[in-house]
Specification:
The chain contains 4 helices and 3 strands, in the order E-E-E-H-H-H-H. It is α+β, with helices and mostly antiparallel strands and 77 residues long. It has one domain. It has a 3-stranded antiparallel β-sheet. Strand 1 and strand 2 form a beta hairpin. The longest helix has 11 residues. It starts with a strand and ends with a helix.
């Protein structure tokens, strides 16, 4: 998933990567049981993680940080 590292932290999981645009670490922390449910049951990310904003959900799905997404879309025009 685009260089994303996962780190189990008790009942949570931290997903992180170094952004190729900002060169800063970008990370989100989600419930590990919910993460497993999303990955294994193939449920919609917005249904499993309604507390996440659109940028966080996109990172979870694709591994793209907000800055990388903006950079990619700016080249599409």
């Amino acid at each position: 998933m685009n260089g994303v590292k996962t780190n189990l932290m008790g009942r949570d999981v931290c997903l992180s990567k170094t952004c190729s645009v900002t060169h800063e670490e970008y990370s989100i922390i989600v419930s590990f049981p919910k993460y497993v449910m999303w990955k294994e049951k193939k449920k919609l990310v917005q249904d499993v993680f309604p507390e996440l904003n659109a940028d966080e959900r996109e990172f979870l799905i694709s591994g793209w940080t907000p800055a990388e997404w903006i950079e990619m879309m700016s080249h599409e025009k």
